[in-house]
Amino acid sequence: MCKNALPLLLFLHIVLYFSPVYSQVKKDTTALSEIIVDASPIKNVLQNTASSIVLISKADINKTDGILLTPVLNKIPGVFMQQGALNTNRISIRGIGARAQYGTNRIKAYFDGIPITSGDGETVIEDIDIASIEKIEIIKGPNSTSFGSGMGGVIHLFSRETPLLQSFGKSNINFGSFGMIQQQLSGGFSDTKSNLISSYSNITLDGPRENSSYNRENFNLFGKQKLGNNGSLSFIGIYTKLKAYIPSSLSEKDFNNNPKKAASTWAAAQGYESYDKYLFGLGYDYQVSNKWSLNSSVFSNYKEAYETRPFDILDENTRSLGIRLNINYKDRLLSFPFEFSFGTEIALEENDYSLYKNLYLSQPGRGSLQGNLFSAIDEERKYSNYFIQMEFWLSKAIHLETGFALNSTAYSFKDVFQPPQNSNIQNYTFGTICSPRIGLSYKVSNGKNIYTSVSKGFSVPTFAEALTPEGKINTNLEPEIGWNYEIGFKGNWLDNKLYTEVALFSAQIENLLLARRTAEDQYVGLNAGSSSHPGIEFTVNYNIVKSDSFKITHYFSGAINYFKFKDFIDLNVDYSGNQLTAVPQKQLNYGLDIITKSGIIINTSYRTVGKTPINDANTKYTEAYALLDLKTTYAFKIFKKLNAELTAGVNNALNEKYAASIVPNALGFGAAPPRYYYPGNPINYYGGFSISYLF
Question: How far apart are CA 74 and CA 591, in angstroms?
Answer without folding.
Answer: 12
